[in-house]
Amino acid sequence: MDQMTAGSRRQMHGIWSGRWTFILAATGSAVGLGNIWKFPYIAGENGGGAFVLVYLLCIAVIGVPVMIAEVLLGRRARKSPIYAMSDLAREAKASRLWGLIGWGGALAGFLILTFYSVIAGWALAYIGKMWQGEFVHAAPETVSNIFNTLLADKVALIQWHSVFMLMTVGVVAAGVTKGLGVAVRILMPLLFALLLVLLWYSSQYGDFARGFHFLFNFDFSKLTWNSVLIALGHAFFTLSLGMGAIMAYGAYMPSRADISKTVITVAFLDTLVALVAGMAIFPIVFAASIEPSAGPGLLFVSLPVAFGNMDGGLMFGCVFFVLVSIAAWSSSISLVEPVVAWMVESGRFNRVGAISLVGVGAWIMGLGTVLSFNDWSNFKPFFGMTFFDFLDFLTANIMLPLGGLLIAVFVGWKMARADAHKEIAETSDLQFDIWLLMVRWISPLAVAAVFVFLLWDKLLSGWWQLLLAAILG
Length: 473
Ligand code: PHE
Fold this sequence. Notes:
Distance between the termini: 64 Å
Order of helices and strands: HHHHHHHHHHHHHHHHHH
Number of helices: 18
Number of domains: 1
Strand content: under 5%
CATH topology: Amino acid/polyamine transporter I
CATH architecture: Up-down Bundle
Structural class: mainly alpha
Bound molecules: phenylalanine
Shape: globular
């Protein structure tokens, strides 16, 4: 095994046709509902600027090094994350328990898909609503009624959830080069073009200055440990890290492609899209005098109000929801690729069988998210959260950062230094050492620190005070 040179193992699913296909695929995975739906509303809920700054820091200091680690692991093993981690653990003479990174990741991807598909379904539904002019000259109450009616309509939600799930299954079934590769080469340039159109529109018709101020004015008084955890979790979520999607895509990366440069390009594009989306959305929201802290409905209530009352808003609103759907589509395929690739490698399934099974499973579990917005909206047995809120919290804020922490520790402490350097041979010794320092110390400690502080904040500080009070009597 140690005779292996960079990316020299055989790959049964195919190899991307070049470095750029990898970049488009990884960017397609990274850019999704996280950038366009989630980022604006969590930035809104957490006060804007200061939150954005913490998020950017997390991307640079934790996200990029961990992403390099994931691609490197995937390409070295040339297998799906579950087998990759157990192979690499064996190669590093480390415990087989490291294989759990692959399992945990596959589970996280599956769980994310279950709710991702439901939210993406809203975007699909909104393309039609925009097109039919439902929002033309609509008052905020009208739009919020339309949104609430959609959320209450289980049948409609299930229909759109099904359509989106079928779109995902269709692409994954067609395979890595013919399905995923082709899809991202068409969808990603389209997405960038649409986003620029929207940015132009918002600069013409929105309150650009206020939008800018909101996103980039660093007001630290609004920052809490909880919002730091959300920023950290979001850095993992938006870069698709900590669950093996990027590792799986790394396994299809050409051997000669330069990993570090590629990863930096992907992280840069993802961040750019989030910020540009924010600059396309907030000015429009402000122009319509709407509060930015509207929560998950921000995109589906405030924006249609704004579009409905602007020149050309009908068409641009339509464009916007097409964009959201495309972004979600190129991400959802990466959520299932790790599980599907593993099922195929196990020899028990072909690709079509594997994705069909996973698709049906995720579809069924997605019904829980559908119900979270109507019948179960007051059913909050999970730490006071609905089924959907809990899944979102568990995956984005716990599973992904934990997965990322373990990946960093494995690469930094368990894998032979020479093996890691062989995969990123393009880096100079100094660059390599800096990266190693990040994955050995900075990323794991930062993630651990946020977990500990949050635990303290949420649970222990209360007990501690009680204890102190009891002692001091
Ligand atoms: N990065 C995607 C987004 O921002 C979500 C995602 C997470 C996709 C994890 C794949 C893996 O929407």
